[in-house]
Specification:
Layout lengths: L1 H31 L1 E8 L5 E9 L2 H6 L11 E11 L2 E2 L8 E6 L5 E8 L7 E2 L4 E8 L10 E3 L4
Parallel strand pairs: 2-3
Antiparallel strand pairs: 1-2, 1-9, 3-8, 4-7, 5-6, 5-8
């Protein structure tokens, strides 16, 4: 009986520590994120200003927008890599639906994945090589292939 209770307590303590470490890891990473303003140049000559958090390291990209209940309109996350590759995303621990815009080295949208569902375990893989990926609230931005993101501070 005592052995059973000890194992149960260790199990519960382990779960608690794991949950606390995930939450603190997300908080630490958010505090390290640089925030910049960019303009999305849309083909119909309309520009939209976006406030973007930059995920430019493996650690920052692995957390992304996980553990968030919402993001403001015209806010999002820009994932950056030093090279162009096929990119794979998932929505694990992401509580909001997102649109993903895959871009080339010039910031031009070359592929779009709309309405990635919150908490979905399905891998989202680009069909083309991308250098960066922009995540925004699902349905917020009606961008199209060929639209261009311009960030002067990058």
């Amino acid at each position: 009986m005592f052995k059973y209770k000890t194992h149960k307590i260790k199990y519960l303590l382990g779960i608690f520590l794991i949950l606390c470490s995930f939450e603190s890891m997300a908080n630490i990473d958010r505090s390290k994120l640089k925030n910049i303003f960019c303009k999305m140049h849309i083909k119909n000559n309309k520009n939209i200003t976006l406030s973007l958090e930059i995920a430019d390291t493996k650690e920052k990209r692995s957390i992304g927008l996980m553990h968030r209940n919402k993001i403001k309109n015209n806010h999002g996350m820009l994932f950056l890599w030093p090279d162009s590759q096929i990119r794979v995303f998932w929505m694990h621990n992401t509580f909001i639906n997102l649109d993903l815009f895959f871009m080339n080295q010039e910031g031009v949208i070359i592929e779009i994945y709309r309405n990635a569902l919150a908490l979905d375990k399905f891998n989202i893989q680009s069909k083309v090589k991308a250098r960066s990926v922009l995540e925004l609230n699902a349905g917020e931005f009606k961008g199209n292939l060929g639209d261009k993101l311009v960030c002067s501070s990058l």
